[in-house]
Design brief:
By secondary structure, the chain is an alpha/beta fold. Helix 5 packs parallel to helix 7 and helix 6 runs antiparallel to helix 7. It is globular.
Length: about 250
């Protein structure tokens, strides 16, 4: 694929630790790198501009709405959607350079998540094939506040690309817990917006089921201490969803 046939759209807030690595790979792929930044207070914007990215400051609208906004500002109809802490490895960059984009296709990338710079090979975190290259006239993100999904995927043929996208998601357990609390709040807000009420069975058994799924069923124990932390904290997130639901509905 020749340079310039698609845009890379990245959402960010305070991602100075990784954004340079992310953009270094992106520069090999296109002349249109667009950063939608939700008013970072670190050096994220300055680093992005040093790599030639266009930066648009935009208030946070939720994951889906912020990404959809960015897609509409892109120069090209084909979109490669990234988070600011995701880095394309050399094999994936080469694969993207060689594909011929065709409407009616969505291109999937295998994401390898890192926890405190340790790759997580189990725990339900890998392999993780996610759709990231698509035509904006055919697909957009749904209205979820968190864990957004592309709409109308069954209409397109799925193409899996070789290589990996390295996701430096958490540099500490405290950062993990902070993000999970935010995710729990978003999920509770979605329940309220959709008129859903968590039942008693979910409240009682949900955290335990989540721990069992991640640590045993998804073989998180093979990830050692990191796998235990992931299972424990995701179980806590399930509990936090109910806590946030009760707080928000009590207002």
């Amino acid at each position: 694929m020749s340079t310039g046939q698609f845009s890379i759209v990245i959402i960010s807030k305070n991602e100075a630790k990784v954004i340079g690595e992310t953009l270094r790979a992106c520069k090999e792929l296109t002349d249109d790198i667009l950063l939608i930044d939700s008013f970072s207070t670190d050096d994220t914007v300055e680093i992005a501009k040093s790599y030639g990215a266009r930066v648009i400051s935009k208030e946070w609208l939720g994951y889906s709405a912020t990404k959809n906004f960015g897609n509409q500002q892109a120069k090209y109809d084909w979109i490669l959607s990234l988070d600011a802490d995701e880095v394309l490895d050399a094999n994936l960059v080469k694969a993207i350079q060689q594909i011929t984009l065709q409407k009616g296709h969505v291109y999937y990338i295998n994401r390898l998540n890192y926890y405190c710079r340790i790759p997580v090979k189990h725990s339900g975190w890998f392999p993780q094939w996610i759709p990231r290259i698509f035509h904006r006239e055919e697909h957009q993100w749904d209205n979820s506040l968190v864990h957004e999904k592309l709409l109308d995927l069954p209409k397109s043929e799925a193409i899996k690309l070789p290589g990996l996208m390295l996701h430096y998601s958490y540099f500490s357990e405290d950062q993990h817990l902070e993000k999970l609390d935010k995710y729990a709040k978003y999920r509770a807000e979605e329940w309220i917006e959709r008129g859903k009420k968590p039942n008693l069975l979910k409240r009682v058994f949900g955290p335990g089921v989540r721990f069992f799924r991640n640590y045993f069923w998804m073989r998180g124990f093979l990830d050692g201490q990191v796998g235990y932390k992931i299972a424990k904290n995701e179980a806590k997130m399930v509990s936090l969803q109910f806590i946030w639901y009760d707080k928000l509905t009590a207002k």
